[in-house]
Amino acid sequence: MEISSKENTHFFSNNTILPVDRSSFKSESSASKEKQSCCGGIKIFLGALSFVYFAKALSGSYLKSTITQIERRFDIPSSLVGVIDGSFEIGNLLIIILVSYFGAKLHRPRIIGAGCLIMSAGTFLIAMPQFFMGRRYRYERFPSTINSTVSISPCLQDKSQTPLSALEKSQAKINAGCEKEAGSSMWIYVLLGNLLRGIGETPIQPLGIAYIDDYAVEENAALYIGCVQTVAIIGPIFGFLLGSLCAKLYVDIGFVDLASVPISPKDVQWVGAWWLGYLIAGVISILAGIPFWFLPKHLPKPESRKDSSTSSEHSKFIIEESKDQGTSYQQQVKLAEMAKFLPSLKNLFGNPVYILYLCASIIQFNSLIGMVTYKPKYIEQQYGQTSSKTNFVIGLINIPAVAFGIFSGGLIMKKFRIGVLGAAKLSLGSSFFGYLLLLSLFAMGCENSHVAGLTVSYHGTELVSDHEPELFSECNSGCWCSKSDWDPICGEDGVTYVSACLAGCRASSGGGKSTVFFNCSCVGTIESSQSSSAVVGPCQKGNECPKMFLYFLVISVITSYTLSVGGTPGYILLLRCIKPHLKSFALGIYTLAIRVLAGIPAPVYFGVAIDTTCLKWGTKRCGGRGACRLYDSSALRYVYLGLTLVLGTVSIFFSVAVLWVLRKRSSPQDETLSANGERGACGTKSRKDNFVNSDQLIQSTYWPEKETRL
Asked: SUPFAM superfamilies annotated for this entry (predicted)?
């Protein structure tokens, strides 16, 4: 020990940045200047990094809020939207190894600044299709609802009722649109832009946090990292609120006369100004990256960090190898990274606690990522809410609950001095009760909207879910209608009809949103065959639906909080049961596995599953299937919540296995001592090592894509 202490003293004295006199005593003035320089520089970096975390969290959450808008704008299914969402993780993975290895050797602040520029370029690229497409958003509407000067009966009993010139012009426009549309798939720009976002975001977290840890005073490092993570939670709140604001604005605002737009935000075909938020987020990313170009490569290290020793953390689960006492900690890290990669990998995957917790995390993140990605769609389709209100609710209610849950988990760990075994129990309990609460959401759904020919027959009887759509009936047999159209109207009988033509309407008055259809042969009560009228737009959901939506919000908030409480204890469990010199490697493998096996595939197969519940698909201008117009509410609820719960249940079984291994490897004496605060389940040697110190506690509040987990 004496030899080691002398060597450490000699090492730090040789690397001291401040001038030292020959008697190795610093003057008070030089020490004061060093302290001021160090504190000033690190605080500027802290402020800049916090702003970057805010910017990347805002743009990431804004993408989640525009999922349904992008789907409608480009007429693509949910499965393809899932691929677009997962492209961020793909971009991140492309350069994560290069950034992690070479980033620490280069100018870290400037690399972060370059990442911000790439991230902003990707954000701008996502918005570009709005300007590249060359045509405005087209929705399926009967001509009389678009202020057409040509008077056309909705129920076209004969083609001759429509002026030939009008038909020719309409067909010419469609053909022209097909020529343009056939050669372009503008959603690819969104995918590439999100890919660039992932590339640009890569250096921010590893290089930024490491820079703070290197140059901050040791007792302040935890506070600084905690501040950064807190700001990262604020970003998604503003991201979803921005999404709420943009969803209220029409997609072509500034390009068309809004008074002539016949659809409203409540219409399933409504598309908000999704591109506007990306322009705002791109500007914020540029501004966030500017300070990093003026920050130094190195900051003076505080004196307290020069005298600090390495961690003495040990675990009874870790079989310590014989080590040369003259080898420094830095040399051990280099040895593990460069000369012993495969043995280290074998050692890591030979740790049953690590591998079981990794499996539990992968499956749980599959559940959470899929749930969060399609949560806006679920609320819109299940409860009939607008995109604007959905984003507002998620941003203002759900995300603060997640933040409070993360904070509560860390506070519980610190206040009750919970060891590793206790952390495993808390993480398991959080997941168990969270998914148990999620189970109650099965009873909080709305019934299917009454849509003639899709969910109910034209005689008013309900159709079974696997029944083939019957859009044609005796009441509209005399009309020349297309079953591929989606131009819903609400009849006086409270039933939604796919189009005015399929409702048998033979006359209309007014224009735009105030259009009223008359003499609709299919609209009427079962008792009376008397025809009635209808108005533009689908009918509202049942009277019980608003109440169910309120119950859903309450349970959703409590569930978000409960699941988030287990985040910090789980991360502590991951840190405490691996060898100290393998921590960075273990966390890297953990993050890589979460991104590859959860972040990329989860949105895709969740989207595929959700697509199976579609009752009415839209049709593209040139033919082919577009975006879904109407979902089976009951089937959507069972698929969305069922898939989430099945994955969550499997992850709980792995968490139980983790707890079983920990109990098996800890003696009853260890558990008793752990309760008294002397020794933990991981068999640490001292009271200090057993408890979670504040530095680890606050650093542990990060996990991949935490800011978007609701």
From this structure: Kazal-type serine protease inhibitors, MFS general substrate transporter
